[in-house]
Design goal:
42% of the residues lie in helices and 10% in strands. It is an alpha/beta fold and 299 residues long. The protein has a single domain, classed as pyruvate-formate lyase- activating enzyme (Alpha-Beta Horseshoe). A 4-stranded parallel β-sheet has the order 1-2-3-4, with helices on one face. A 3-stranded antiparallel β-sheet has the order 7-8-9, with no helix packed on it. A two-stranded parallel sheet has the order 5-6.
């Protein structure tokens, strides 16, 4: 199989719109490496709440393309350059990310900063949050997790287990959730809901997962080849072009039942889309004055 062409991606986006999808997230890897990313993002932003993830290395080079999207999430894991570069494994990554955040913000582009909470930055997340809120830059949180193989093939790989990153101070993580819940009461720039923070708190407090995975129901993943999977650790189950035919099929219902019982990861994006969905989910977001609530409801 070859990488989808520009026209094929547009066709895929049309299919998603017909299925009722309201939000599309471009992540990677680095989606900004595509030469046609300007055209793709311009097209996607006409019909979806569109978010692009970048580590700051290409955002400035592609700044004109990013003017069309709703959110640009720049990955930055620490206010300390040495800690951030150690986590990223790339010297100078902190400087590039900070430059991208500051420039995009000055240009009026909806940039947010995205830390992955791990044992290495756990104790600074509250100060980190306050720092960027003071600069009027929203914070979109991720939680360290790693791929746990559940099938012989998976759509793509994100990360292996790293003992340095794994959160072992569970009491501190519980306290962090409580602190962020309190901080949210007077700040609307924290792109996480109280319900999500409560769910994460319970996970670290007593190991209880108060949600069931909604892969292939509330969310799914599409790779650069157009293959579709419930999440990135699952095997591809169809292609974007066959998705409408498969969506209401008995086979997809069977897979959804399997996915609902999965306890294989703690990726915060999957937790979010598993907990918040439909009219009730949108209402919960509105109650917390999320910046993109109006967009979600009008889509």
């Amino acid at each position: 199989m070859k990488e989808l062409s520009t026209d094929e991606i547009k066709m895929g986006l049309d299919i998603l719109r017909e299925l009722g999808v309201v939000e599309v997230v471009f992540s990677g890897g680095s989606p900004l490496l595509r030469e046609d990313i300007d055209e793709i993002l311009e097209y996607a932003s006409q019909y979806f709440v569109t978010t692009v993830y970048d580590n700051g290395s290409l955002a400035l080079e592609k700044i004109d393309a990013l003017r069309n999207v709703d959110f640009v999430a720049i990955s930055l894991d620490s206010l300390n350059p040495k800690i951030n570069d150690y986590i990223k494994g790339v010297k100078g990554s902190w400087e590039k990310a900070m430059e991208a955040i500051e420039t995009l913000h000055k240009e009026g582009i909806n940039v947010c900063v995205s830390p992955t909470i791990s044992q290495l930055n756990l104790y600074e997340i509250v100060d980190y949050t306050k720092y960027f809120l003071a600069k009027k830059v929203p914070v979109l949180y991720c939680l360290y997790s790693y791929d746990v193989p559940v099938e012989s093939e998976q759509l793509f790989n994100i990360g292996r287990k790293n003992d340095e990153f794994e959160i072992v101070d569970k009491e501190a993580m519980v306290k962090l959730c409580d602190d962020l819940i309190q901080l949210k009461k007077n700040n609307s720039g924290m792109l996480i809901t109280t319900k999500i923070l409560e769910a994460v708190k319970q996970l670290f407090l007593n190991g209880k997962r108060i949600w069931k995975c909604r892969a292939l129901t509330n969310f799914f993943m599409i790779d650069h080849l157009g293959r579709v999977a419930g999440c990135h650790v699952r095997s591809p189950v169809t292609t974007i072009f066959e998705l409408p035919r498969m969506w209401d099929s008995p086979e997809f219902d069977r897979l959804r039942s399997i996915y609902r019982e999965c306890k294989g990861c703690t990726y915060l994006c999957y937790i979010f889309y598993s907990i918040h969905s439909g009219v009730i989910g949108n209402f919960e977001i509105v109650k917390e004055n999320w910046k993109n609530a109006k967009i979600l409801l009008s889509s």
